[in-house]
Design a protein that fits this description.
Shape: globular
Strand content: 5-15%
Distance between the termini: 62 Å
Largest sheet: 5 strands, antiparallel
Bound molecules: carboxymethyl coenzyme *A
Number of helices: 17
Order of helices and strands: EEEEEEEEHHHHHHHHHHHHHHHHH
Helix content: 40-55%
Length: about 450
């Protein structure tokens, strides 16, 4: 690897540190590379040169701390709001190539997992590291289904909410309340406790979600049917009214299961980073999952599926699309369900969901908003504004249309995202807890406030 390349400047003109970018052509007067996996940094404030190790195309931020003007300086830091270029962990769970539109869980392409596996197999893969064989899957499924029932207190908890409370607010509270029922879960160093919490979170999340739906509809709660599949049981708890035995439509059951798979993990996204960050204080995983769900709730993340449907309603009809796109380009709102921090190509999950939509609509009837979505996509994909910024449909653009066709209320959409993402959160949390390089998450800041000053008495303040 070429050690010395183009000169990049960090800092203002008075304080310049030269960083030689090893990936670019080196300056004319630079010495040729030695192939050594290190980076040489010259601090122009002092004239000193430092050599820091490059591993996995990354330098350790703490290696920069040795770069000081005076012995009592704190040392050099990096400034990276929103973590645009900072890796916070080493992980073996999910791989994304955003330029090529590739997503793998533990090395397996998402397309194959969606076609060949069930959600519970994928959850096992994410958490345990390998796909289960038949015996392992049976054992895993038995353990999860042993925990599907929710404590009766949940009914009282949910009754405390106003009739029109957003399901996601209730879901976050319900997850947090699990920590009060299972206080041993704060023994996060005990693998048995971690395993138990994983079973409970995966098992109980759909029960809580369905209870929340039924509470908001005023329907009596429907208890789990452990003879059904994971997705089938969820549909049973959502929609069973009066039947002795609920039989989910096999295509809708399979579709929901695939949607759970597509949402299961996405490396260090906002909610997963929250799961890790909250969990890094060694709080129990239920509280960390509540924090992760809260992060997911926002419109820029898992709340986007709900926002897409509201946007399609607002657009109303295909003829209003040009005016809507014009407003977006003028900064008067975003095209929800478009764009991604990592994908600069078509989100592979969106391609799968688009195909699933046809199968679902063949059963439920076509969602009339599909025409608006397809036309929005067509126009956006040929518009310079979106092309230049590499904005493509993401996972949330089409998922809501399917959820709506399956009769899920729009406000439930982020909860559905959370159900799928639960296994990823658990896998990432467990990886963080068992990683000896991890510590409590605690970013630094650049303090730009006042220097020390005396507090004036109240009467002295104007
Ligand atoms: N509509 C219009 N313009 C957009 C959009 C959009 N959806 N997304 C990004 N841009 C523009 C943005 O205004 C900026 O333009 P400029 O360079 O002129 O200032 C440029 O593209 C870069 O945007 P950014 O906000 O710096 O990009 P980011 O990486 O910080 O944000 C994002 C990623 C997903 C938050 C953003 O694309 C967005 O807000 N999308 C809509 C919400 C959405 O669909 N979220 C779901 C994400 S996928 C599911 C998940 O994992 O949660």
């Amino acid at each position: 690897m070429n050690l010395l390349g183009d000169l990049t400047t960090i800092g203002n003109s008075d304080e310049v540190v030269e960083v030689f970018n090893t990936n670019q052509e080196r300056p004319m007067d630079a010495p040729s590379g030695t192939g050594k996996p290190t980076l040489s940094i010259t601090d122009n404030r002092t004239g000193k040169t430092y050599e820091v190790k490059i591993e996995h195309d990354t330098i350790q931020a703490t290696d920069l701390r040795q770069i000081k003007v005076n012995a009592d300086d704190f040392g050099l830091m990096t400034y990276d709001p929103a973590f645009m270029n900072t890796a916070s962990c080493k992980s073996t769970i999910t791989y994304i190539d955003g330029d090529k539109g590739i997503l793998h869980y533990r090395g397996y392409p998402i397309e194959q997992l969606a076609e060949r596996c069930s959600y519970l197999e994928v959850a096992y893969l994410l958490i345990r590291g390998e796909l289960p064989n038949k015996e392992q899957l049976d054992d895993w499924t038995t353990h999860i289904f042993a925990h599907t029932y929710a404590h009766e207190n949940f009914k009282k908890l949910l009754e405390g909410f106003r009739h029109d409370a957003h399901p996601m607010g209730m879901f976050i509270s319900a997850l947090a309340s699990l920590s009060t029922l299972y206080p041993c879960a704060n023994r996060i160093g005990d693998p048995k406790e971690r395993e138990l919490a994983a079973y409970r979170l995966i098992a109980k999340a759909p029960t809580l979600a369905a209870f929340i739906y039924r509470r908001s509809m005023g329907f009596p709660y429907a208890h789990p049917d452990n003879s059904l599949s994971y997705a089938g049981n969820f549909l049973n708890m959502m929609y069973r009214i009066g039947e002795i035995k609920y039989a989910p439509h096999p295509v809708l059951e399979k579709t929901l299961d695939v949607l759970f798979i597509l949402h299961a993990d996405h490396e260090q996204n906002c909610s997963t980073s929250t799961m890790r960050g909250v969990g890094s204080s060694h709080v129990d995983p239920y509280s960390a999952a509540a924090g992760a769900s809260a992060a997911l709730y926002g419109n820029l993340h898992g709340g986007a599926n709900e926002a897409v449907l509201r946007m399609l309603d607002e657009v109303g009809s295909v003829d209003k699309i040009p005016a809507f796109i014009k407003d977006v380009k003028e900064g008067k709102g975003r095209l929800m369900g478009f764009g991604h921090r990592v994908y600069k190509n078509y989100d592979p999950r969106a391609s799968i969901i688009k195909r699933l939509a046809d199968q679902v609509f063949a059963i439920t009837g076509r969602n009339p908003k599909l025409d608006i979505a397809l036309e929005l996509e067509r126009i956006a994909l040929q518009d310079d504004y979106f092309i230049k910024r590499k904005l493509y449909p993401n996972v949330d653009f089409y998922s809501g249309l399917i959820y709506q066709a399956m009769q899920f209320p729009v406000a439930m959409f982020p909860v559905l995202f959370a159900l799928g993402r639960m296994s990823g959160w658990i896998a990432q949390w467990a990886e963080m807890i068992t990683d000896s390089e991890q510590k409590i998450a605690r970013p630094r800041q650049i303090y730009l406030g006042h220097a020390k000053r005396d507090v004036p008495l109240l009467i002295q303040r104007s």
